[in-house]
Automatic annotation (TrEMBL), chain A:
<keyword id="KW-0813">Transport</keyword>
<keyword id="KW-0411">Iron-sulfur</keyword>
<keyword id="KW-0479">Metal-binding</keyword>
<dbReference type="Pfam" id="PF13459">
    <property type="entry name" value="Fer4_15"/>
</dbReference>
<keyword id="KW-0249">Electron transport</keyword>
<keyword id="KW-0003">3Fe-4S</keyword>
<dbReference type="InterPro" id="IPR051269">
    <property type="entry name" value="Fe-S_cluster_ET"/>
</dbReference>
<protein>
    <submittedName>
        <fullName>Ferredoxin</fullName>
    </submittedName>
</protein>
<keyword id="KW-0408">Iron</keyword>
TrEMBL record, chain B:
<keyword id="KW-0560">Oxidoreductase</keyword>
<dbReference type="InterPro" id="IPR017972">
    <property type="entry name" value="Cyt_P450_CS"/>
</dbReference>
<comment type="similarity">
    <text>Belongs to the cytochrome P450 family.</text>
</comment>
<protein>
    <submittedName>
        <fullName>Cytochrome P450</fullName>
    </submittedName>
</protein>
<keyword id="KW-0408">Iron</keyword>
<dbReference type="InterPro" id="IPR001128">
    <property type="entry name" value="Cyt_P450"/>
</dbReference>
<dbReference type="InterPro" id="IPR002397">
    <property type="entry name" value="Cyt_P450_B"/>
</dbReference>
<dbReference type="InterPro" id="IPR036396">
    <property type="entry name" value="Cyt_P450_sf"/>
</dbReference>
<keyword id="KW-0479">Metal-binding</keyword>
Length: 66, 422
């Protein structure tokens, strides 16, 4: 599956990072490293963590992209 | 909610019921943060009732709009184009500028805000804050153990505040021997002082803290160290060094943001657990539940009421506002909004969808949240490992201070001594 992290919306709450550090790495300032990467591939086995991160993000910055 | 005669609004200076609605004008309330007795007693109840009412209200004292639903509060926090942070308090004391404080970057609007925020976010990143965890545990354990044998204690003064002040002091790079001095100054600045009618006590705390920090900033300029003060001194904006005054304004924000808020959050959770034995037993039996308890406590006892000033005449979510009007956004109402959370009025340790906004949203969201979480997760774990099953003392007060931020004044608990779990 693919996900996107919206560069404009991400404010560095790091709730996704708390769910899974490897899946949602942060840059040095504490914002999601994925926010400048466009659509990112995520293994289907990680679907549960992706759903948690989408739900918990206070800015609603994470979305499935198909 | 108490209905009153319209002229009751004119009895300024008297302690009144918190939300007095004049019947024929459902959007009109009286909510005087500085004087309201009911607010001190049960502000979460007040915000629940507000969340159940109209989506916006207007308080005539001292004059501000308030949004009451999670959806509107969130939307407003993101609209920095409509709502400015330059005057970040709707309190009468602050409007009249009796205390000339400035906190940077909190009191800047985008795009300038982002230039200064970039200075502090890397210093407070999740990875850097995680390194503090062993030290937080050590200090927390020591404080809890010192309380144990007495069989009773006051959690705010004996645990939460000394822990947070200690950790913050080391992080900032100030001498521990003076921790109590500036812990007290920061408390006066945030919580205020009941005898401070003209703002002079808070004013003096502000001046003292600014002078104090200025001295240490100058010392770090001459002799850099590995601490946050050095980071502030060496910071640049657009490739230029920043003035000493600005540096002090940044350090000051770390003080007001980093101390009493975390003290209050921890104290709220302990006070809750003194009533909620099931939650208390659960986190003591299974420490992996502590983060969930902290997050639920952050939602249920959200403590900040943000203030903004309207930048242009606007009708936002149906609320007609004029340039210069004040807007208050109570996160406590957002956390208890039944449209945002299933069973919102219940503290649920096992809540699955806890997308709370206790640290705010949008560009000004709390930059210290990662520090706060490391402190709370570790300290609440250690506290419950050391202190056995506890309850409120018979005469325990549940009064809070409520001034845009809130927190328990005291949390008096007792336990059967001599049965520590360590």
């Amino acid at each position: 599956m693919k996900i996107t992290v919206d560069d404009e919306k991400c404010m560095g709450h790091a709730r996704c990072y708390a769910v899974n550090e490897d899946l949602f790495p942060l840059d040095d300032e504490g914002y999601s490293s994925l926010r400048t990467d466009g659509a990112v591939d995520v293994p289907d086995a990680q679907a549960a963590d992706v759903e948690s991160a989408i739900t918990l993000c206070p800015e609603r910055a994470i979305e499935r992209a198909g | 909610m108490t209905a009153t005669e319209p002229d009751a609004a004119e009895t300024a200076g008297q302690a009144r019921g918190a939300v007095d609605v004049v019947n024929e004008r459902p959007n009109l309330i009286q909510l005087d943060f500085e004087r309201d007795a009911e607010l001190r007693r049960d502000h979460f109840g007040v915000f629940e009732r507000l969340a159940d009412g109209p989506s916006f209200v207007y308080s005539e004292t001292p004059g501000f709009w308030m949004f009451t639903k999670a959806e509107n509060i969130e939307a407003a926090l993101k609209r920095t184009d409509l709502f400015s942070n330059r005057q970040m308090s709707a309190m009468k004391r602050d409007r009249e500028k009796r205390v000339p404080y400035k906190f940077i970057p909190e009191q800047l609007d985008p795009p300038e805000h982002g230039l200064y925020r970039k200075i502090i976010t890397p210093m407070l990143s999740p990875a850097r804050m995680k390194r503090l965890e062993p030290r937080v545990r050590e200090v927390a354990r020591g404080l809890a153990e010192a309380m144990l044998s007495a069989g009773r204690g006051e959690v705010v003064a004996e645990f939460s505040r000394p822990l947070v002040v200690h950790v913050f002091t080391e992080l900032l790079g100030l001498p521990l021997s003076e921790a109590n001095t500036f812990g007290h100054l920061a408390r006066t600045l945030v919580v205020g002082d009941p005898n401070d009618d003209d703002g002079s006590i808070v004013g003096k705390a502000f001046t003292d803290l600014t002078d104090y920090l200025g001295g240490y900033l100058e010392a770090r300029r001459v002799q850099p160290r590995e601490d946050l003060l050095t980071g502030i001194v060496q910071a640049e904006v657009n490739g230029e060094p920043i003035t000493l005054e600005r540096q002090a304004e940044i350090a000051l924000l770390l003080f007001v943001g980093g101390l009493e808020t975390t003290v209050a959050s921890m104290s709220y959770l302990v006070r809750h657990c003194a009533d909620d034995t099931a939650t208390q037993d659960a986190i003591r039996a299974d420490p992996t539940l502590v983060p969930a308890a902290v997050e639920e406590s952050l939602r249920f006892y959200s403590q900040i009421s943000m203030s903004r000033q309207v930048r242009v005449d606007t009708e936002f979510e149906g609320c007609p506002m004029k340039e210069g009007d004040y807007l208050v956004l109570p996160l406590a109402a957002a956390g208890r909004d039944t449209a945002a959370f299933a069973d919102a009025r219940r503290f649920d340790l096992h809540r699955q969808d806890n997308r709370h906004i206790a640290f705010g949203v949008g560009p000004h969201r709390c930059a210290g949240s990662h520090l706060a979480r490391v402190e709370m997760y570790a300290a609440m774990d250690e506290f419950h490992k050391v202190i056995p099953s506890y309850r409120h003392t018979v005469d325990a007060s549940r009064d809070d201070y409520v001034v845009g931020v809130s927190g328990p004044l005291r949390v008096d608990i007792e336990w059967d001594s001599g049965q520590g779990t360590r």
